[in-house]
Amino acid sequence: MQLRKVTAASAAVLALALAATACGSDDKDDSASGGGKKITIGIKIDQPGIGLKTPDGKYTGFDVDVATYVAKELGYDAKNIEFKETKSQDRETAISRGDVKFIVASYSINDERLKKVDFAGPYLLAHQDILVRADDDSIKKPEDLNNKKLCSVTGSTSAQNIHDTLAPKADLQEYGGYSECLTGLENKAVDALTTDDSILAGYASQDVNKGKFKLAGFKMTNENYGIGLKKGDADLKKKINDALTKMVSDGSWQKAVDANFGPAGYKNEKAPKIGNVVK
Amino acid sequence: MSSVLYDTQGPRAKRRNILYTVLFVLAAAAVVWWVYDGLAEKHQLDWVKWKPFFAGTQAWETFIWPGFQNTIKAAFFALIIALPLGALFGIGRLSDHRWVRVPGGVVVEFFRAIPVLLLMIIANQAYSEYTDLDPDTRLLYAVVTGLVLYNASVLAEIVRAGILTLPRGQTDAAKAIGMRKGQTMVFVLLPQAVTAMLPAIVSQLVVIVKDTALGGAVLSFPELLASVRPMSANYGSNTIACFTIVALVYLALNFALTSFASWLERRLRRGKKSTGAVVGTGPGGELETIGAPSLNMDDGTAA
Amino acid sequence: MFDFLDGYDLLGAFWVTVKLTVFSALGSLIWGTLLAGMRVSPVPLMRGFATAYVNVVRNIPLTVIIMFASLGLYSTLGIALGSTDIKGINFRLAVLAFVVYTASFVCEAIRSGINTVPVGQAEAARALGLSFTQVLRLIVLPQAFRSVVNPLSNVLIALTKNTTVASAIGVAEASYLMKEMIENEAQLLLISGVFALGFVILTLPTGLILGWVAKKVAVKR
């Protein structure tokens, strides 16, 4: 008899596991929420100020605001937008497969990517910069990073750029995410965090981080954020460009910049002209 | 525990033990205080960093629960795919035919020698180059593939051990009533071996659950560990708090599995109807051998 | 055919893997033996500590432990383990994390070895008037070690593979290099093959040699 109990107990555990798995996959049910056509847009979900999934399950950030505005201009209600995380290395795949209609995810326009996807925009000109502690005045130019500890995320080229050209003696720390770098920066285990100034401004603008960090203001590269879409879809590209132009002219663009990056004392570039990629 | 290693304690030994206990407590307290003080000084224990987990359930619902589901999903699929594969190779290694036994052994030993992390990275790249999977599915497949390749070879060894633990009399009796080799395996040995292996299989599940974290750390598969990333981005980079909470969730899950495995093992050992053959487990997935002479098992593999 | 290796320090990466393995193995052997000693010691509190340690550490993913070492010990508590540059600090933190994790498996292996030593051995030792530490050090552990060479060699092989987790905090060992190469070069199969072979070369002889040693030193009873 005890054999049967044992088997039953094992079966129960397996069934529990199965149940947990099953209820994870029922969020694709979009037939019920009535009316209107749907659109799926790719964003980042872990970058404050750019694209962030908040605890209430909603999304915030500059990219999200831009995406929502553009979608509205294309005729999609805010409630019919489905945001989907597109990780940096998956962006081209997601577009070419048609998983997303377009991608607004701190996506810089470059020649390598132009071979695979088309870009509308640019809608923001960002630069590689560094974030330092608010009370740290020892880093005034990129060369001051020599003998300093510099943090970035694994696989990113920004830290490597600094190491190769500007400050060969900079000591590099790599983590899976920016948050780990920020913990190190806050506790003085590293001296600077490098990536695009828009992302850095997003982190520095968070309520809990206010007053702790500042941007150094080095414009080390030009990052032209564009909206990635399927190669050859000229119609969609034109519509998105028109939407972006309107967003700038009616003041929504500046409002979104101020709301998302403002508190960090981030001096944004003027809204870029459509099609004007700054090398 | 009255051990054979020391005598029943007299008054002097008791005093000495009390002294050791006090010293140990003091040392432990000093370490705990030092950690506490260090964390507090760096504001890592501030309420604002921990509040999301204790005030309200949003952090759990939005970040931890979906991650937990993905962990369970990957672990579950890995186990149910690896089990039949493992059984196949395990039985293959016991075959009387050299041409079955040797290749089976080579495959098993090969995949046991390669870190799961490497297998996951390779699988991910292979899927992205040779298939047209959507990125989310691809990550799940890559993680499950890595886990299956490694764990099938470990389960093969468990199956082999399970069959070898059975008393020889079982095979002899089956032969005596005229059963063929296949029949002996399917009707006599396997059913008993499966029962004997259950605790070891549940313990292997602990190893699998721990290994899913590799997919989160290196491939950004959105499992429990990877849920730290969007979570800490929201709560002002409270990475220490996030990792602590996630570690506790892993601990609770694995502790439940481990306890279940030892409960199973105890029941089976006590059992009167079975042969009493059990492939044992240690806390957290260690395998001991009881009766199987040639079991050669991994310990504490995480990668 | 192997020109894809140009510009990559393959041997250097595997050398880091080997160094991680060797230092972690030595550390975890020492700490694991101490833990095993505590688990059978007459002081109840130490027994409790060792048991709790093993149960907690074995149920947490190694990746989490290594993140704690980096973010908790170094970033927050400022423990740099005597190194000043990030490369050195991360290497030492990784070794520490591997020791913490692997020691729990070493402890369990040794404890099972202690159980194989016949009761009469310990009784005879006590009859001679040896103390607990003497019984353990002179009589029980030497025999226990001889019977756990095989389990310990499995722990060592697992440790070799586990060192790949160090890439999570940016230690440039073999898996770190492989990920970089696989993303930048086209020859997926060749690169995977080379790295898989590297690990087979590292782990297979370990198993064979220690298996032979296990047979040589086994206590014939």
Mean pLDDT of chain A: 84
Biggest sheet details of chain A: 5 strands, mixed
Contiguous helical run count of chain C: 9
Architecture of the largest domain in chain A, according to CATH?
A: 3-Layer(aba) Sandwich
Q: Estimate the strand proportion of chain C.
A: under 5%
| Number of E strands of chain C | 0
Unreliable residue stretches of chain A: 23-34
Strands of the largest sheet of chain A, in order across it? 5-1-6-13-7
Cα Rg of chain C: 20 Å
Instruction: Label the CATH architecture of chain C.
Output: Orthogonal Bundle
* Fraction of residues in helix of chain A: 25-40%
**CATH third-level topology of chain C:** MetI-like fold
**pLDDT below 50 for ≥5 consecutive residues: which ranges of chain C?**
none
Summarize the helix and strand pattern of chain C as letters.
Answer: HHHHHHHHH
Instruction: Give the C-level CATH assignment of chain C.
Output: Mainly Alpha
Short description, anyone?
The complex is a heterotrimer of chains A (279), B (303) and C (221). Chain A is built from nine helices and 13 strands.
Outline the structure in words.
The complex is a heterotrimer of chains A (279), B (303) and C (221). By secondary structure, chain A is of the alpha/beta class. Chain A has helices spanning 2-22, 62-73, 91-97, 111-114, 158-166, 178-186, 197-204, 234-249, 252-261; strands at 39-43, 46-47, 51-53, 59-60, 81-85, 102-103, 117-126, 128-133, 149-153, 171-175, 192-196, 213-215, 223-230. Chain A folds into 2 domains: 39-126 and 224-264, D-Maltodextrin-Binding Protein, domain 2 (3-Layer(aba) Sandwich); 128-215, Periplasmic binding protein-like II (D-Maltodextrin-Binding Protein, domain 2). Chain A has 9 helices and 13 strands. In chain A, a hairpin with a 3-residue loop joins strand 2 (46-47) and strand 3. In chain A, helix 2 (62-73) packs across helix 8 (234-249). Chain A is globular, with a radius of gyration of 22 Å. Chain A starts with a helix and ends in an 18-residue tail after the last helix. Chain B has a single domain (56-270), classed as MetI-like fold, CATH 1.10.3720.10. Chain B is built from 10 helices and no strands. The longest helix of chain B is centred in the middle third of the chain and has 39 residues, at 181-219. Chain B is flat and about 75 Å long. The model of chain B is unreliable at 282-299 (pLDDT under 50). Chain C has one domain (3-217): MetI-like fold (Orthogonal Bundle). The model of chain C has no long low-confidence stretch (mean pLDDT 91). Chain C is mostly helical and 221 residues long. Chain C starts with 9 loop residues before the first helix and ends with a helix. Chain C is globular, with a radius of gyration of 20 Å. Chains in contact: A-B, A-C, B-C. The interface between A and C is medium-sized, with 17 and 18 residues.
